[in-house]
Specification:
Shape: globular
Helix content: 25-40%
Structural class: alpha/beta
Strand order of the largest sheet: 2-1-11-10-12-13-14
Radius of gyration: 23 Å
Number of helices: 16
Number of strands: 28
Distance between the termini: 53 Å
Length: 531
Amino acid sequence: MDERTILGALIASDQQAPGEERIHLVGDRGYTAAEMLDRAAKVGGMMSEAGVVAGDRVAIMVSNRVEFLDAFFAAAHLGALSVPLNTSLRGPILEHMLRDSSPRALVIEHTYMDVVGRALENIGLDARVFVIDRTPTAYAVATIDFAKALAAATPAPMAPVSRYDDSAILYTTGTTGPSKGVQHTHNSIIAFGEKSDWLFGYTSDDVSHNCLPLFHANALCVTLLPTLRAGGKVVFGQRFSASGFWSEVREHKATVISILGAMVPILWGAAPSEDDDNNDVRVALSVPTPSPEFYDGFEKRFGLRLVSQYGMTDTSSIIGTPPDQPGRPGYAGIAHPDFECIIVNEYDEELPDGTPGELVTRPRKPESIMSCYWNNPQATMDTWRNLWFHTGDVLVREADGWFKFIDRQKDAMRRFGENISSFEVESVIMAHPAVHEVAVYAVPSDLSEDEVMAAIVPVDGAPLDLDDLGRYCDEHLPYFASPRYFTAVEALPKTANLKVRKDELRRGGITPQAVDRGPRGRKSSAASVQS
């Protein structure tokens, strides 16, 4: 087995620490690397019996439990491509991803059977569906009980996978179109982990803790694979809980953690405790970097070192806090040695230091970022203009090489740690019969990320019931993408060529006429759907 592959990382872990617990799932138990290899072969066997072969896609819609990892490693065992799906997806966005990736098999938790079943019926996709904790479904989709199939499966032989073979499709938000599938080879997904290793300096003594969803690149590429390759141990929490976070970190003696988005201000805002620095953490990844007002205080209070980074699912961590330097409040870091990173104007001409512009990059080593966008050559070509990968984000580079994030050039938003496509949210809202036009854009949040706002132009003569529209959005959008703010307008501001001036809408912020639906989260959206 080529060591620069997903399964190669698991094999390396087994060789470095045979018989020792290498992966622990909170609420379940710990697993050795050898156990996970055996499970990958058996799950691969049941997938093989269902017709999965090398090059096929295996979609995974599972929370942080061992079956997610089973499917992820089993796909690699067979030479298939894993397609992790956000467990909050529903409606048109989920249908697009399933239609686009056309998986031969799906592994899903019974909790998501209704939304997946509806999506499969709507797009007419014939796939083998393995259901965990199987329950009856009203949809005409043939399902297979995951546990029973696993118990009866014969281990499949390991496919001769090389580092240059495709390994995964990780969906990321679109802005002018639907979400794009970021296609990674085994080598590029291992290289993704190596860039994180530059930040953390993983060793065999490390215990990495991550409570972010396993379908995220952070959990898989920043935590799982590089920790395994270093011979360390990985602990996955079920989800972030402000009240239980530090006790979980302490219980598992974690030395490396990821605290992204709103997690940082939430942890900082909690009442101080004499146990705050009673942990084994040596380094924490924080994105975005805490503000100068509490950066030093956070490190001192919790007894750890903060590092930051700028990265994308498409490219990995291309900028970060160098291992031999302290972090800098408000800055992402310097360019990783394996990447060229420059700031350019609209003509791709490099700008002088201190001048904001678009960040473009290119790797110095082959096969170290995505190979392309799955099934989307036009998007691949558009992104790789003039031999540079265009991030679509505005940054500034200082004279000493440190980069600071300024703004998103694209119409993308980030909320609850999730990237959101304004295009996809607008597409859903436009399907409502009372909506003539809509513009979706970001407005400031209290928790360092974005809130989602929608400006609505009603259909002439049609009453616009914003409560009804809110329930509609909750039903057809993931909880993190459903707008918090609605405002009814007579017309949207536009340019001479009739493009919506979202910059003008963003500058206007949360207007006095806007309807605030309150903080949007899993519970609030679920309550809205049920009411």
